[in-house]
Design a protein that fits this description.
Structural class: mainly alpha
Largest sheet: none
Number of strands: 0
Number of helices: 5
Helix content: over 70%
Length: 125
């Protein structure tokens, strides 16, 4: 009788999820723009690889913050400990008003563009 697999996410899993989410959004929203700016397929792939490397660095940085501040609210706690309560307060409000809101708007626009393609209606963003 074999032991049941452990139900836990490690650093590699969390890093893969973050990098995959960032690259996944970019793949669906901007491939034609990246290809147009790059000028060649090789350059476009190079830019995607560079973006993936930057996303990986961000994911690893946030993993380090999560390891140092394992309590709920790790980013805010880290900012408060490293830069003071004002920085944490301002980041919290920016997260609420602009950062998370902007992500939700992008997802809604992407969904609306795909829905308009399925329904055969005109849509411009």
């Amino acid at each position: 009788m074999s032991a049941a697999p452990r139900r836990a996410l490690g650093t590699l899993h969390a890093t893969g999820i973050v990098v995959g989410a960032i690259i996944g959004v970019g793949i669906f929203l901007t491939p034609s723009k990246v290809a147009a700016v790059a000028g060649s397929p090789a350059a476009a792939l190079g830019l995607w690889a560079l973006g993936g490397l930057i996303a990986l660095c961000g994911a690893l940085s946030l993993a380090e913050v999560g390891a140092r501040f394992p309590e709920s609210g790790g980013q805010l706690l880290a900012l408060q400990a490293l830069l003071g309560p004002l920085a944490a307060f301002l980041y919290g409000w920016c997260l609420l008003v602009a950062i998370q809101t902007g992500v939700l708007v992008l997802i809604a626009l992407f969904a609306a563009q795909n829905l308009s393609a399925v329904l055969g209606t005109a849509w411009s963003a």
